[in-house]
Amino acid sequence: MLKAKKLPDQFRGDVVTRVVYLLNRASTKNVQGIAPQEAWSGLNPTVSHLKVFGCINPCSKNDWKVHEMVVKSVFLNGYLEDEIYVEQPPSYANKIEEENKMCRLKKALYGLKQAPRAWCSCINNFFLKEGFRRYPYEHALYTKEDENDNFLTMWLYVDDLIFTGNSSMMIEEFKESIKKEFKMIDIGLLHYFLGTEVKQGDNEIAISQKKYAKDLLIKFKMENAYPASIAMELGLKLSKHDASEPFDATIYKSLVGSLVYLTTTRPNLMFSVNLFRRFMASPKRSQWEAGKRVLRYIL
């Protein structure tokens, strides 16, 4: 996993240590169904100190507000490096004598396969000009620091800019600077992004996907179903060799993919969703019904 994410090898020791710590506190069949730590010490291990959201969010801890800005007509801002020609628009062709001539594009248009790359190069050059540093392991993440230890961290997603920092003056200066370069919409504080609601309070940031979950239920016509108290039936066993009839793989993949995104704020669904992902190639009716039960659980 470290190699796949191109992370430094220095993290390998930390990963192994944490895995061993968790395995020693998990029950195992090799030691009569009890945890290795309990078999060794005779004491029942506790995991109450482990929390899903145990990491400290520096933004909420230091009361740094997260802002959002949107670039208007994002793909019309990039300049093309390739030679691309288009036919003259009718209104333009009527004004010149030689109608067989073509127009060379200097800036990108929507629909060109070069447009996303041109925009990426354009915004990257702007950030570098403004003194930002691009992270080598995450090319959509930029940061800027000054001599007074003030900083501004920027995350780019196509035309959305999400940023925060410890200096309100630096944030306002950046807003004014980028407005001079591109046509922008200043959303203000981040409150909704990619199906996730964000609420920012005093030393607190809360995220949820209530609207996304509701839309998911409507998509699969489950909004009026009876709710389930647990995500999966007790003792449920799913297999690739299930005797039930085959199910539409496209619909099944759509359900599993939607649930994967929902685990962003519902990590308690992770086990069930990862189990369903094993059957993406040739799903069966029983696996589809198990997935629908998860939808009933999120009601």
Automatic annotation (TrEMBL):
Q: Which InterPro entries match?
A: DNA/RNA_pol_sf, RVT_2
Q: Which domain of life is it from?
A: Eukaryota
Chain ranges of the Reverse transcriptase Ty1/copia-type domain: 60-232
Write the protein's name: Mitochondrial protein
Q: Which organism is it from?
A: Cucumis melo var. makuwa (Oriental melon)
